[in-house]
Amino acid sequence: MKELEKGIRRRPHLFYGWYVLAASFTLLFVNVGAQFIFGLLVKPMQTDFAWSRGAVSSAAFLNLTVYAISILVTGRLYDRWGAKWVIVGSALLVALGFGLMASVHSLWQFLLYYGVVAAAGFGGTSVPLFGSLIGRWFKKRRGLAESLAIAGHPLGQFVLIPLLAHAITASGWRSTCLWIAGFTAVFNVVLAFGVIRGDPPKFGLKPYGSDTGAPHTGGPGAAVGTKGRQAADSPEDLSLWQAMRTRSLWLFTVVMFICGAGDFFILNHLVAMVTDRGIAEATGASMLAWCGLLGLGGLLLAGPVVDKLGTKLPVAFTFAFRAVLFTMLLLFKGTALFWVFALGMGFTLPITAPILPTLVSKLYGLRHIGFICGFVTTIHMLGGGLWSYLAGVIFDSRQDHNLVLQDYNLVLLISAIMAAVAVVCTLLIRERRHLPPVSSR
């Protein structure tokens, strides 16, 4: 091991962080199958167990709630133990959860295995952790590096969703869950131990583009002089508790709650909604796959647009566009319109991901950006889980009351209204640096 690390330091032609980036891309590509398979499981599990759609969707609510908590926990563990052990431990939890899912025979088992065990591992096998990992390896070209690594996520959705749909059709969802468990364990363990292994100091390196002449002056616990303390505790940088006393944070929190609701409604219910209309399941899976690929375009476009126009206008346009898409699908149905809906929604899915830290840093400074972004991300996930569950409940209620057709029309109407509310909330945000409340200065 020591000889390998010495060899790494002797190779000046290629910075080792690029290997870490490639491994992160690969892991996000592979791990996306476990995170997005739920939408493919809804109707097969309804058929096998005669569960209501609301009952199946309750697992998505629990999963996303635990997932949101796991993001905060794995972030803390990463700071203490490093990425390698967090990735390995998280991947083994995901593998265990999906392995146990192959033996599910009751709803409580599904809730436990998918909603708790697998979800507890999602925080260390998805975008937030790998974004933090790449951020520690790159100072120069950090935006490019993070975009390249995160691209594995939408590309994985594009490639794997049709393959998983075919596997479910050919061999059943139980066997597919076992395959996911195996691939998750093998790829994450091998690449974590073989490539990622640690942060730059472990290899005697500094982040790419670092000023080698500038010594590190410490973090939150470092000793500082009077000027240093004044800079660290600058009143320009608000804590989460101070930010909570500003209207802009709550407006943006509402926006992100609505964003999560729309995101996970599509990811968890699109295939079921399409097949309810008589469209083939393979076509629905293709729509979900292309939804992910279009997300890559939105992700790459978001950064330059935000640099040119600021954050409010791109976010407001995103939700105005979503309101139009939800309204269109409410009024008109058909294969072509479902394709337009899926591709349009897919383009908007990842746009708020790069906008979140940009807006938070602009409003509240950098010192507490991780904690504030973590809080907002948690609300985003809870919105996704709650609306995924309620969408299933509303769907069931339309059948129970013998309405004209068991469908998602009411869900689409409410989603369109929520998107319009998000537009208004976005425009009301004060996009300028906020100061701490007078009582806390």
Keywords:
441 residues, Growth Hormone, Chain: A, globular, 2 domains, mainly alpha
C-alpha end-to-end distance: 51 Å
Number of helices: 19
Flag low-confidence runs: 212-235, 400-404
Instruction: Count the domains.
Output: 2
Report the β-strand fraction as a percent range.
under 5%
How many E-type strands? 0
The first-level CATH class of the largest domain is given as Mainly Alpha
Q: Name the helix and strand elements from N-terminus to C-terminus, one letter apiece.
A: HHHHHHHHHHHHHHHHHHH
Q: Looking at this structure, what is the CATH superfamily of the largest domain?
A: MFS general substrate transporter like domains
Helix content: over 70%
Structure description:
By secondary structure, the chain is mostly helical. It folds into two domains: 10-207, Up-down Bundle (Growth Hormone, Chain: A), CATH 1.20.1250.20; 235-435, Growth Hormone, Chain: A. The chain has helices at residues 2-10, 17-36, 38-49, 53-81, 83-101, 107-122, 127-137, 142-150, 152-171, 173-196, 226-232, 240-243, 247-276, 281-309, 312-331, 335-348, 352-364, 369-400, 409-428. Helix 13 packs antiparallel against helix 16. The chain starts with a helix and ends in a 13-residue tail after the last helix. Mean pLDDT is 83; it is low at 212-235 and 400-404.
